[in-house]
Amino acid sequence: MASTGPLISAKFDPTNTYLASGVIALDTHQVRVQSINPSQSSLNSSFNLDKSSRLTALSWIPYTENQLIAIGLSKGSILVYSPLTNEIISELVTPTNLSIQDFHYSKLTQSGWSCDIGGNIHEWDLTSFKLLQTFAINDLLESSENISRISTVLYEEKAHLLVGSHSVYLIDIQERQILKTFPAHVQPIDTIYPIPSNNDLFLTSAVDDRFINLYSISKQNTKAVFVAQASILDMALGIKNENTSVLVMLTENGTLEVFNNPLSNDAPVSANVHSKKKRRQQLSTVQSRSSNASVKLARPQDEIKSGVDMSLSITAVSVNDDSIVLSWLENANLLYFESIKWLNESGEVILTNSVTIEKSKPDLKTTSHSDYGHDIAASKHYNEGNAIVTDGSNFKDLDNESDENDDEEEETLAEKLEKLSTDQKPKQANPNKRKLGSKNAPATLTIVLSQSLKSNDHSLLETVLSNRDPHVIQSTISRLDSSLAVILLDRLAERITRQTSRFDQLNYWLKWIIIIHGGVLTSFPNLNIKLSNLHAILSKKADTLPRLLELQGRLNMLYQQNDLKKEILRDDFNDDSDNGESDVEYVEELDDAELLQNGQDESDDEMDIMDGQDDYMDSDIASGRSSESESESESEDEDPRDSIKSVMDLENPEDEEAYSDVEIAVKNDDISEADEEDQ
Questions:
Q1: Confidence of residue 485 (pLDDT cuts 50, 70, 90)
Q2: What is the pTM (predicted TM-score) of this model?
Q3: Which ranges are annotated Polar residues under compositional bias (predicted)?
Q4: Of all helices (H) and strands (E), which one includes residue 70?
């Protein structure tokens, strides 16, 4: 996938005869098909998409003699385009209407396979152009994944799918289950390349990654790692025989890096290793290889007038049996081709050193307006090769002007007035220092954050992200350039993927980026592709929300039931206490007994029983006479012995010393019959 200038994507056909490219036109995306042979330029064609459609995937379909092109769109459909007739044969509409990530035609299943940004996989019949089956990768996994690439491979004599997100999954098509998982890259996978000569091997590369991994399906391990000098945009593999092959990588700086014999099993062993055990360990480890040669395009020395002419960016690459075919842009919109030999006549690899190919600036004068897109009769006062603005998505080539603007930003009127007022007032060290320090802190974080994002300094970025103050985060994001917001979102998504426990800490950064820069981010083209990693993570987090809400509802119900039980128990206790107070009755004899006890304590200790009894009877008769309201029947039936006995029963039996002899006698039933008659 190329991203140089207005070029969106460029793919050679399987025969290396034509190049299909997607470019950005004036207000739409355009698909061009150009022949490598200049004598067949009459077969070149172009097709403009609707203004509402955006190109997201481009793939050749070697289904018939006349090859077709599958054009994936952001609105969830796939256009089947015929370059020979320059028309759309059919439109494949997915039921999900999500942006198409990749399309692959499989010779094993004789059908087309597509995947979208939501993780859905679709199989198409390219004869009737109908949908055969569809399923989601998220139904096979516990977590939510975003599929970026899809391919097919022969495993155990059956066709299986190779699906790539951050890892590669081997899926059984019939059973719809994942058989094996290959941990691959931190970034989303950009290419899955099965080896044609060996069904057990396949290559993978990722976005903004310098590594290409070679995997073995049967052993489920990594056999080799190929390391480039810069991030890889595209790759091509050429195989002459079992021992002769070449792997070519297209890097983001526009050069090619060549790896000779990447499929060879001969691993370099150090000569200093004498132990057989160490030698076997070294052979069993994963091989890490660097490039054997590089290919670069440049202008001749006499034509170099600026730094742009120092090197030409290669846009696409493919490998034939004995040569490497590459293309580059002239005047920002014209494709040119070149072929380089990588094998000599004897079958030996000849690319062993760095090669620089000088290409003079071609004469772009023409007599036909259809070749170069403009009328020769109309004057043209600009050079498209010097254009800077393309679609607003290529921020890597911008100068570091934002930092200079932040440093040289003039003070506002309010800041000048505040500074003037502080100068006129008597100096107070502590309040002014706190105020100025809090004011400059967000600006300092903005500059540091911008530097860390542009220089890809992870340690410096971690220092900024460790801040948890919401006010500082809000002020930092508000002063951050909108072009860096997308990069910051990618960095945050990487950290959340590696450490899910940091989501609460980084949630404030995500919140203020979306609030402050959300309007600008929506205007960027292909934003769903750039933020696909973040979308997958947030979708995974959102899937747990219904379960948490259900759990919260159950907990609230338990709390309410507990509170209701406590309230019911509290009401029952209050009712019992009220009923207990109402059951208390007043006993008049209790007061009389207390008075009698007090009188007996004060009387003489030598008083005999009869005197005490007479005194008690006299007091009892006197009290009976004073209460005229009581009925005579109740006063006559009342037994003084029973009243005294009931009073004595209320007291503690151990305190017998406090009672008189009469009371003790009554309690023990020791009163004689004569005494009863006297009473």
A1: confident
A2: 0.55
A3: 282-294
A4: strand 68-73
